[in-house]
Design goal:
The protein is an all-alpha fold. It has a domain of 51 residues. Helices cover 87% and strands 0% of the residues. The longest helix has 29 residues. The model has no long low-confidence stretch (mean pLDDT 81).
Length: 94
């Protein structure tokens, strides 16, 4: 059962990244599809470069700790992205 819950959570966070990030970039920040494409290319290159580092961390720390680390990373990155989008779109700053 825990495997399916982790798989569900992973699928949800991927969908959020696929839908929410471009929406923030295009609608709230007023950028075009070219910006989304360039950011996607940069993220994929960074992921390719970081994959061996993440693999070594997975071997050293174990699956449980890496899943926790991923969950914390996602929570922090989505929070920062939402805060920055609000700030750049002229929303309330707090």
């Amino acid at each position: 059962m825990p495997y399916y819950m982790v798989t569900l959570a992973n699928g949800c966070q991927k969908r959020i990244k696929i839908v929410f990030a471009p929406w923030v970039i295009i609608n709230l920040l007023g950028q075009g599809a070219d910006t989304v494409a360039l950011l996607t290319i940069v993220v994929h290159l960074a992921g390719t470069w970081l994959a061996p580092v993440i693999g070594r961390m997975l071997d050293r720390l174990g699956v449980k700790k890496m899943l926790l680390l991923e969950a914390l990373y996602i929570a922090v990155s989505f929070s920062v992205m939402g805060w920055l989008a609000g700030m750049l779109a002229g929303g309330p700053s707090a």
